[in-house]
Amino acid sequence: MRPLAANQSPSLLLLFLSALFTSPSSATNPGCDRILAKGKSFDLSGLKGPHSFWVDEENSPHKYNSTYTLDICRPLERPKAVKNAKEWCHSGAYVCAVKRFLQSDSDVEHSDRFEDDPERVHPSKIDFEEVQTVVTIAGDFAHNFGLDMDAKWTLLSDSSSSADSVKEGLRLEMGGGRDPFVKTGRKQMAVIEFLCDEEKTGLEDYPDASKKSSRRSATAEDDDEDSDITPENGKSEARSLRYLHYDTSGDVDKLRLEWKTKFACESYLADKNAAKTSGWGGFTWFIIILFLVIASYLIFGSWVNYNRTGAQGFDMVPHADTIRDVPYMMKDFARRVVNTVKGGGSRGGYSAV
């Protein structure tokens, strides 16, 4: 093997360092527990886990229901209820959208098939559970597909928009998605605005996508119970996590969400850290009590010696003679240790003749 030339070594070293410190996953992963935006720290790990909501679309000839699921801390996992992998987003997705047909009971009574093509089933007879479209909106696919998520955290107060500049909170932008999921597919992005709301954790009203698979309930009583627990409509202003719109007018399709939570308040993390440091632990209290006991003993003992024996100066301190001997005792102890170590190589106490 031919040895490397002298001028090749620095190039290889730079290439190695570049690969080591510019890993796509570490660069694009949004993280949620150590967020730093313009010198201010945030911790949104309290919002970890998958969260879902439903949005009905009525602009098309047939009604649809879209289920959006997101996790800002880690990639989503396919729910156990979803048996077919094609009915879920690609591995590595952080934001996933699944669109299904939404039909009323009256629609089922329509003709089952088209008159001109008996093989084609009328859309009104398609079962609601059948997934029509799956869109991977955001995720980290740099390793497998070369699609970077390019997650970006910014302060709302730094926004160029005058309406956003007066808000307190964060904005997270995540990309990497495609529709369809190929490099040439239409680019997707999720834009989430975390608004400071000291009265909300952000976890108040999320339906669990694994427990419900449709928008419809079996009875009106079920509808009432569900509405009391959590509103399913992602557009409801009562929700902490709220759907704003899905903009497809530009070069990139953008899903815009709003999330009200106390974790987005600039003072939350500072107050949390202050509460941790302000409290004294058990060991601190032990040291304080021990110090007070020793001080009280010395003061009381000095007072007794002064009144009983008329001692003056250091002689007033209890056990003054013992305290004076401490340095000598320590010196004698050190000498014994040194002699013991040095005498370790002797021959059992017998001297040579």
Overview features:
353 residues; alpha+beta; nine-stranded mixed beta sheet; two-stranded antiparallel ribbon
Describe the structure.
This protein is elongated. Strand 1 and strand 2 form a beta hairpin. The longest helix is centred in the last third of the chain and has 28 residues, at 282-309. The chain is of the alpha+beta class. It has 7 helices and 11 strands. Strands 3, 4, 5, 6, 7, 8, 9, 10 and 11 form a 9-stranded mixed β-sheet that branches. The chain has a two-stranded antiparallel ribbon with strand order 1-2. Mean pLDDT is 75; it is low at 1-27, 105-114, 117-121 and 207-231. The protein has helices spanning 9-21, 24-28, 162-165, 220-229, 266-278, 282-309, 320-342, and strands spanning 35-37, 40-42, 51-57, 64-70, 93-101, 131-139, 152-155, 169-179, 186-196, 241-247, 253-261.
What profile does the largest beta sheet have?
A: 9 strands, mixed
Order of helices and strands: HHEEEEEEEHEEHEEHHH
Q: Helical amount among residues, as a percent range?
A: 25-40%
Q: What does the average pLDDT come to? A: 75
Number of strands: 11
Number of helices: 7
Structural class: alpha+beta
Radius of gyration: 35 Å
Q: What fraction strand?
A: 15-25%
- C-alpha end-to-end distance: 68 Å
Uncertain runs: 1-27, 105-114, 117-121, 207-231
Shape descriptor reads elongated
